[in-house]
Amino acid sequence: MKILAFSDLHLAPVAAADLVAASGGADLVIGAGDFCNMRQGLDRAMQLLSGMAAPLLLVPGNAESADELRAAALPNMNVLHGAGVEIDGLRFFGLGYGVPVTPFGAWSCDLTEAFAGQMLEACDAADVLITHSPPKGVADVTSGGVSVGSEAIRAAIERLQPQLALCGHIHDSWGQRGYIGDCQVVNLGPTVTWLELDH
Fold it and tell me: Where does the Calcineurin-like phosphoesterase domain start and stop, copy by copy (predicted)?
């Protein structure tokens, strides 16, 4: 399966156009959250992605709630938040929001580590784990040099050992990759990222 993946679009029209143009070569498109800004403009973000030539799996970021994303999603989009889906024999599980709780205030959709851990316990197997936030210690460092990833997400990766763990959220770590065991972790960012998975 050929996967086109991205995160943190934040209503950027040029980035969206590049992703849509690339989508003709994809079997599946994955969006790892933050499609709009501070809970504003989500319908516009979905319209920017409306030309996608492949089905989409989306998780909410901290810039939109799960309910808001489900309401705005187009017919070819499947929203995962504490839930999984199987496509062509591959198992995908998604968890959105900022984990741990961000310092951004009331608009930000966040989860505590404890609650995120509970939601991730619903997953007993996955080939691809899609989260908005990165795991602690991989692709999670801010410009100030601070590791701000999630312990709960890291623990889930250690337990499940998916082939891929896809995330975003920490802009300073966009494009970074690393491993937890045999699982490759990728902090995506809003540019075209291609990934291949064997069934």
Answer: 1-190
Distance CA 17, CA 22 (A): 9
Q: Report the 10 Å Cβ neighbour count for 196.
A: 9
Domains of the chain: 2-196 (3.60.21.10)
Residues 115/78, Cβ–Cβ less than 8 Å: no
End-to-end CA distance of the chain: 7
Contacts of 84 (CB under 8 A, 6+ apart): 91, 92, 93, 94, 122, 123, 126
Backbone angles phi, psi at 120, to 5 degrees: -70, -20
28-85 pLDDT, tens per residue?
999 999 999 999 999 999 999 999 999 999 999 999 999 999 999 999 999 999 999 9
- Look up the pTM and report it: 0.98
Q: Name residue 119's beta-bridge partners.
A: none
H/E element, 2: strand 2-6
CA–CA dist 11, 82 (Å, integer): 25
Q: How many CA atoms lie within 13 A of 64 on its CB side?
A: 32
Quote the tokens at residue 121: 């316990």
